[in-house]
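Appendix C reproduces, verbatim, an entry submitted by the partner laboratory led by Prof. M.T., so that reviewers can inspect both the input and the predicted structure.
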Amino acid sequence: MSRHVSERAGSGTGALLRWGNDAIGLVFATGEGEPVALVGIGSGGEGHDVPVLAPELRQPLVELSGFGHGRFPGSFRYVDTVIGARLRYRAHTVEGGTLRIDQHDEETGLAVTSVFELRDGVSAFRTWTEVTADEGTIVLDAVSTFATGAFLTAAPDVDGFELASAANDWVAESRWTTRPLRELGLARIDRDVQHQPPRSRLHVANRGSWSTAAAPASMLPEQAGNWAYPLSGSGREAMVFALVNGVLGRMYLSGYLNRMTPDEVSIVREAVAAQRAVVADIEASLPFWPLGLPGWEDRWVSLGLRHAGGARISLWRRPGAPSVVVLPLPAYRGRELTVQPFFPADSDGWSWQWDAPTGELTVTVAVQAPTARVLSLTPGPDASSTAKDTPA
């Protein structure tokens, strides 16, 4: 069981609140005369070893604007709100894995509570903002879930950051691109020379409620849904290809199950059973992409979920792809690795070879594309050299 510990130390403008468990630590600036800011996120439990932002880089934790209370300087950004700048720390409470930080704006009478939740063994947090009016009425047009510049502890400025985003449309999801923030329009502003804060922004919005497209790059794996639409009569490999889509996440199963043959229903049942096994540890799993975020025209696509006992990888070979693909798995370099079929349970024309010194898994496919599999990876102790073959 992870411990949830909070500690507020210092006084005046230097007060810091450290909170976390064995998996993650958060640090908040809660000094007098300034809004609360999330100034550090990292491992190290309880926040004691988490790097903390310098005061000049701190971003108020909550931004909110209302009629008659906008932004200064004026811009289309969702920061620099005058209410957000006026918020002041009141108190905080900790109950189990939940932290509540209370702030107040004297001018409007707004009370703002930031809620953070941790789960044992999970290096992530859930957060939201609650706003109430102590007196009177005010119309709000924007409230942030949270805001932070804590990621700048990993780099001196935003020059070191890139944005991975995907264009999404019906049956045209996950068309990924990765570009530096500076190229996307975040201009470099020297406050000392230009005497102005930056006003540029990068705006990415979702216009629908479907969450299949970003799965699981911008949402939790357990919330990342994908359609699995097996068609009766399409053939075993085509059905498996469709069902692999939903195994490592939330499966949206469709298709006319009532029209399927007993063998086809058996394939569907096996996929559902595999997905239920994934659900057992998905909350503490982390996604990774051995071949990088997929492009729309990529012939080989891969997605992995790493958990405490190893990992699972989904692999799709699309038409036109070569029969051999090499997956870089640096996390297991120098270690033995047992690779087994996860779904379907038989390799059925797929084979693989693990090379520990290079940390590369070579997969060879003897069946015609399109074809897909989910593989299970179980690491062993460190080894200087090993190679394992699994026959097709």
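The chain has a mean pLDDT of 87. Additional entries are available on request from the coordinating office.
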